[in-house]
Amino acid sequence: MTGTRTFEVGPCALDQLVAAKAGRTVSVCIPCRDEAATVGSLVRTIRGELVDATGLVDELIVLDDRSTDDTATVAASAGATVVAIGDVHLVHGQGHGKGNALWSGLVASKGDFVVYMDGDVTSYQPDWIGKLLAPLIDDDTVALVKGIFHRPTQMGGGGRTTELVARPLMSLYFPELTNLHQPLAGEYAARRTVLERLSFVEGWGVEIAMLIDIARIHGADAIAQVDLGVREHRHRGLHSLALQAAEVMATMLGRAPGGSLLTGPAPTLRRADGSEVPLNLAERPPLA
After folding, report:
1. CA separation for the pair 204, 240 (Å, rounded)
2. pLDDT-derived band of residue 153, with 50, 70 and 90 as boundaries?
């Protein structure tokens, strides 16, 4: 059984990466909803060091997913091209959820390589994007590169959905993916030609579905990971994580050998108080 690959990427020489792009372009897409407190610093750093100073990044997009705060204004002032998700919906129809925002970012961008970044990260380092891109630029057999992160326990740690839901199910149904440290992480890079041939789950199952589908189409060894160091971000409570976990679980079971969950009645998360929350398992079609 072949599995995913781990690349050891040291400090990136940005001028060498720019030269190795050989005319190919890079888009950074940051999906955001109410991230005014953090997105400005993230955009300013990427804009200043990777767009203006080196030219490694050719396009910097913040996909504003119906924010009710000043996310769009802050991101635009910091130097991003802000795309309102409503503009994508006008052409492609309504959707909702993280996966819908990622798909909309793909629609709005043009780069040959697409780098996704979460908008709530507070520990971003400029070399993250270079490290994610390096395996793609250097090795044509790599389709997608995930980040490996170390999450400080004093900041709440992280990875609860991964370790309690995703990893057990990967072990049972997708063992070729089990050596991925953070399969659900929001920081990763991929080839546009790969992403445009994938369906995007609209909800929280988007990242795990992407990995499963790429492994099925291209082989698990087309997926790589690189160590990006420490990651700090907004910490979600268990009430919020329960919905995320349920959607990840339903997505994985639907894609497991013989899986049929997605073909039955729309599943819901039933909470202890008797309330029910529908699971967002809808899919956006491949752009290609």
Report:
1. 11
2. very low
